[in-house]
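Exercise 4. Each item below gives a protein and its sequence. For each, produce the structure-token representation.

Item: Integrase core domain protein (Arsenophonus nasoniae).
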Amino acid sequence: MINDRVWSFELTDHTSGWIYAEYRFGGETTQNFTDVLINAMQERGGADVLHGVPRILYTDPGCALVSSTLRNLCKTLGIQLIAHKARNARATGSVEKARDILECHFESGLRFVQVNHIDELNRLVGLWRKKYNRTALHRRTGMTRTDCWLHITPGQLIKAPPVDVCRELAVSQPENRKVSTHLRVSFRGSEYDVRQVPGVCVGDTVQIVRNPWRDSEAQVVVINEDGLEVFCRVPEVAKDDYGFALNSPTLGESFKALPHTPAQHHLSEVEQTLYGTTTPGETAAAQKANALPFGGRFNPYLENERDTPPIYLPKQGQASPVCAPRFEERLNPVVVVQQLRARFQAAGKTWRSEFYTTLTQRFPDGIPADQVDALGDELMAQTGDVVVSLASHG
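Answer:
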């Protein structure tokens, strides 16, 4: 006999109250909790009727019960794991009552027998639970726990995978995978079609785990509208010897487009509302014709047009010292001489040839256009003769 402390673990079925009990060395460890849960889910046969994957596992908030190992197992098997608040043991009252029943109806007799090994202890408790659940009436249902549990329907009873598979699932964590342009993800050396996963889009990252019941499927973890984790089964993409998907279209023979994602469906609905259309074809035609959304009834600048700003007093300031650049137009001296000659002739003055030499020497790069009139006055002042035309009449 091993001199070590023995711990009992109890699980109860919420509907029938069926009690499963098992003894373990080592205390309330993650491994012990996980192994007891896996054993309780197995189909043991005979009067030990309780088995199957539960829909909900309701536990206390102990660290072992909410460890990653147990969470991984629950997540992969689709079990919703709920831990009640700390220091609220009455929340799991059926388990506390099961512990009381075990102490009064089973453990009280252990003082009269010699138990040399924990396997013998578990054999005895197995015999006890089969008989107690089959014979003791439950006050709430008025039936024995076994009779009540046998009312379970095929749709409610989910058979658990073998023990070795469950243990593998307990240590395997969901893996992140990126959705490809073909709405597929790679996982465990294969590709899986995720087009049926609600809300999935190209480029998204999804959590995927193996399906313990079918090797040709995997499971994608999805957060539903209540914020709870649920599973969506995705099939493996079957391929031929050349790596083409068996359900893909044949080149030159057929065409097949991927189904629209929810985001694309929502976009189509929004566009139909914008253009007042009822089909995608009508929407495309309206966009091609550059039709205004909402028939032009929506003016995004209406608020600006109706805005009445306050009147602000002008602020005093200083003039900028920066001067604007000045651009001078320079004329060819020949052109200027022609203009001045005409002006001299009109004024009765005599144009002298040295005036041209003076102008070209003073302005070798051309004469500024705004100085032509001043130059004309300057040159006229240098000559005083006036040509008078006399006409004799006889």
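Check: The longest helix spans residues 118-135.
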